[in-house]
Design brief:
57% strand, seven-stranded mixed β-sheet, 0% helix, mainly beta, four-stranded antiparallel β-sheet
C-alpha cells in the first residue's frame, strides 16, 4: 500500500514562484519514477515533469527552463520548483509514483496564477 500527499499549492501572481512537495509512504521499491502532472479545467491531465530514482529528469516543453523537478530518495519526497509562472500554468497538480507496473496518485494541489 502506498500513500501519496502533495503540498505547496496556492495563489501566485504572474511571474512569481511556487514550490510543490510530494511525500510518499508505504512500500517503495528501487527503480521507481516520481512525477508531476497537471489538469486544467476542461483539459486532459498532462505530464509536467518526472524523475527516475537515479535522478534523470524529463520535462514537458511548456515548462522547460521554468520548472525544476528534484527528489530526496532518503525522504521519499519529490519537489517541483516553479518559476516565471504564467496564467496558463493554472491547474490542479498531481503527484504520481510509478513502480513495478503500478501507479499511485495523490489527491492534487491547486495552483492558481492570477493578478
Amino acid at each position: 500500500q502506498v500513500h501519496v500527499v502533495e503540498s505547496g499549492g496556492g495563489l501566485v501572481q504572474p511571474g512569481g514562484s511556487l514550490k510543490l512537495s510530494c511525500g510518499v509512504s508505504g512500500d517503495i521499491f528501487d527503480g521507481n519514477v516520481m512525477g508531476w502532472y497537471r489538469q486544467a479545467p476542461g483539459k486532459q491531465r498532462e505530464l509536467v515533469a518526472d524523475i527516475t530514482s537515479e535522478g534523470t529528469a524529463n520535462y514537458a516543453d511548456s515548462v522547460k527552463g521554468r520548472f525544476t523537478i528534484s527528489r530526496d530518495n532518503a525522504q521519499n519526497t519529490v519537489y517541483l520548483q516553479m518559476n516565471s509562472l504564467k496564467p496558463g500554468d493554472t491547474a490542479v497538480y498531481y503527484c504520481l509514483l510509478s513502480q513495478l507496473g503500478t501507479r499511485a496518485w495523490g489527491q492534487g494541489t491547486q495552483v492558481t496564477v492570477s493578478s
